Amino acid sequence: MSEHQHTDVNLQVGRKRSMLQFLPYFLPILILYVLLETVGIDLKKVYGQGGYTVTWGEILLILSAVMALAEQLKVSNPGIDNTLEALTMVGMGVLQLVLFVLGAAGVVYFGMFAKSDFLVQTFISLSASIVAVLINARTLRRSIDFAGN
Q1: Residues of the chain with pLDDT under 70
Q2: Domain boundaries, the chain
Q3: Is residue 21 within 8 Å of residue 74, measured between CB atoms?
Q4: Tens of pLDDT, residues 7-49
């Protein structure tokens, strides 16, 4: 063997990255919330058939819970650095919190965000983003230690 012999190594291990993976899953829920509020649909109005009733606010909360779980799955790949995805989740939660604070402060055009439904969605988003950062930090290590080590 010669000292100058080279071997080709594929450095693109893992998944291919696209810009869509950096979009937080809570963004469509925020867009849906703004659309429902802009059109003037009452989120607390009860819709139902038979014995089953539901409100738009409950639908948005269920979607928020499902998206929170999906966001956590997005960053749970062992050995893959998903820090940017986790930080975009934190950014989305902070954006929702800022929108709520502006609405609660009475700033013009932000009154639609000063509602309890939006506050609960914000709490779900923020807690999911915190958990996502922790999951990413734990799964970034290639080996998983047992017994709390």
Answers
A1: 1-17, 142-149
A2: 22-44+51-139
A3: yes
A4: 554 444 555 667 777 889 999 999 999 999 999 999 999 999 8
111 exposure class (CB count in 10 Å sphere: 0-12, 13-18, 19+):
middle
Question: Measured between alpha carbons, how far is 34 from 147 in angstroms, rounded to an integer?
Answer: 46
CA–CA separation, 141 vs 149, rounded Å? 13
Task: Please enumerate in sequence order all residues whose Cβ is within 8 A of that of 75, keeping only pairs 6 or more positions apart, or say none.
Answer: 82, 85, 86, 89, 132, 135, 136, 139
Cα–Cα distance list, 49 to 43, 63, 81, 117, 120 (Å): 17, 21, 47, 23, 26
In this structure, is the dihedral angle defined by the CA atoms of residues 49, 50, 54 and 59, taken in order, positive or negative? Answer: negative
pTM: 0.79
CA distance 110 to 105: 9
Contacts of 138 (CB under 8 A, 6+ apart): 144
| Spatial separation of the C-alpha atoms in residues 86 and 104, rounded to whole Å | 27
